[in-house]
Amino acid sequence: QVQLVESGGGLVQAGGSLRLSCQASGRTFSHYAMGWFRQAPGKEREFVAVTRWTAERTYYADYAESVKGRFTIGRDGENAVLLQMNSVKPEDTAVYYCGATSRVGSYGFGDQMAYDYWGQGTQVTVSS
Fold first, then answer.
1. Chain-centre distance of CA 26, in angstroms?
2. Which tens digits make up the pLDDT trace of 25-66?
């Protein structure tokens, strides 16, 4: 049974840092794309970052414009993905979800519809 479990959320002051972790189990995820999305109250779930295996046999990372230069996504072994959040802002407050997919299909990696598996989410609250 595939399972994704996020951890590392919490309360942080604006300008501070936080590291989120997503641990996957149930199969090997080394060639899966693993991404982070977030959902703030009253808003739709939005793309944050993704790391995916490429034909060049490396991992490629992509980010939403709102987090470029502040957040870093990286793999931690075959079945885990990290999100290092630096210089956080109050607008980063949201529930952060980890997703995984073996193929993007007709969707882009920034579209939640492309993802087959999801974690339960971890709350990140940034105080001003």
1. 19
2. 999 999 999 999 999 999 999 999 999 988 888 899 999 999
